[in-house]
Amino acid sequence: MSDNGNTILVVGGGISGMTTAIEAAEAGYKAVIVEKKSYLGGRVAQMNKYFPKLCPPYCGMEINFRRIRANPNIRSYTLAELESARRHNGSYKATLRIQPRFVNAKCTACGECEKVCPVERPNDFNFGMDKTKAIYFPHDMAMPVRYAIDEATCQGSSCAKCVEVCQYGAIQLDMQAETVELEADAIVMATGWDPYDAGKIDNLGFGTHADVITNVMMERLAAGNGPTGGKIQRPSDGKEPASVAFVQCAGSRDENHMEHCSSICCLATFKHIAYLHDQNPEIQAYMFYIDLRAQGKYEAFVQSVSAQEHTTLIKGKVAKIETDGDAGQLVVTAENAVTGEKVHQTVDMIVLATGMEPAAKAGSLPVSMDSEQSGFLLPSGPEGVLTTGVAKKPTDVASCTQDATAAALKAIQSILRR
Ligand SMILES: Cc1cc2nc3c(=O)[nH]c(=O)nc-3n(C[C@H](O)[C@H](O)[C@H](O)COP(=O)(O)OP(=O)(O)OC[C@H]3O[C@@H](n4cnc5c(N)ncnc54)[C@H](O)[C@@H]3O)c2cc1C
Is 318 near ligand 1, meaning CB less than 6 Å away? Predict the structure, then answer.
């Protein structure tokens, strides 16, 4: 693959960042991905299935990983962030800060280290619903295929059991943070989203009632490589729920939380109802919504799931969630906006459809970027700096990959214009 000597720096290694890097590299540019987590793939790696086809996201991810591995024009850094970017002679002098992984490239992911590690940490990949050892493999399909050590939990050289057992010499407990300097001819921000913190929504019981979970937790509960091996069960007692309520716009379209609509939460809930009915078609699903939003081609998917038996849609904003005495159940209170009736629905489990909040806001990045009122970054920043994917607006994966391809082209154009 030819390389014309120009470098595009991509901040964020989710589907948008990977796509930008791949498209730029396949057009002959060098691409450097800077990802703050220990693996590439972003939030998509945490999804169980994609709407509307309900296929696992790994097929698409694996193709991208293969394109990255096969392309010498792409370099990626994990556990890394852009520390500074200074304009210099039409390009940027960028400094990356790379946190120590404590496991080097000799790691074969054999897992012997994990067996002897004596300490555990909450598994952030599964939203704290299970634990990993201090030395952990980020998730089944992680790229790079390499363990990492959580410095905050690891007992360090006073333990070192993992070092003793590793026959490849892959564990280096004295690894230090490092900085990498490089010249970037364009920068693309692909920093994506974080789930809105449901703990901030006082009336919906998250954090108070164990059986109130969020939509991203539901993705992990339904996943075969998730904390329950794919069995959707109540966190409080591990039983299969007989009924589940889905609360839409949890913290979204609400001036006290996030004013924007994340545009995918309704579709995600229909997908979650499909997960429930895949497990047991008798589980009763209630969906409380303000408006149903399904962009363009997704309408048929919504129609097919909402027509399923044991699926009830109630137009009404949920006012509160409480426990039902000693019965271990939960009661959702809402007003049905069609009939005007007050609804008190008793269920076994509740899923809050929390929206997408921009992971990077203006001011949180070392490059001066402006954002909309909602916090999503504007499409472009200073000369040669662009934004792509959910960093720019909440949307689905197909739109992200199209937008990321366009961002690669825009970045190339900005270089050619100089
Ligand atoms: C419950 C739910 C279900 C969904 N289901 C579907 C579905 O079925 N189908 C579908 O098409 N879409 C779905 N989506 C939407 C989908 O998740 C997004 O479209 C997709 O994640 C956007 O990818 P992205 O690369 O733009 O952002 P992300 O996936 O968030 O990736 C951004 C990456 O940037 C990294 N990063 C952030 N800040 C920095 C920084 N400062 N420095 C370095 N790295 C940084 C992050 O660690 C992350 O790896 C769903 C969303 C939700 C909430």
Answer: no
Residue 413, exposed/middle/buried by CB under 10 A (0-12, 13-18, 19+)? exposed
- Going from the Cα of 49 to the center of ligand 1, the distance in angstroms, rounded, reads 14
Model confidence at 2, pLDDT cuts 50, 70, 90, reads low
pTM of the model: 0.97
Query: Where is average pLDDT lowest: 128-137, 254-263, 319-328?
Result: 319-328
Helix (H) or strand (E) holding 413: helix 397-416
pLDDT in tens, 379-414: 999 999 999 999 999 999 999 999 999 999 999 999
Residue 25, domain member (yes or no): yes
Return the best residue to mutate from 269, 272, 396 for the ligand 1 pocket (most ligand atoms within 8 A of CB): 396
Mapping DSSP to helix (H, G, I), strand (E, B) and coil, where does residue 302 land?
helix
Range of the domain at 19: 7-99+177-192+359-416
Question: Based on the domain organization, do 306 and 378 belong to the same domain?
Answer: no
- Give the distance (Å) from ligand 1 centre to CA of residue 192: 5
Are 260 and 117 contained in the same domain?
no
pLDDT at 297: 86
387 is a domain residue: yes
Q: Ligand 1 centroid vs 398 CA: distance in angstroms? A: 12
Do residues 230 and 224 lie in contact, with contact meaning Cβ atoms separated by under 8 Å? Answer: yes
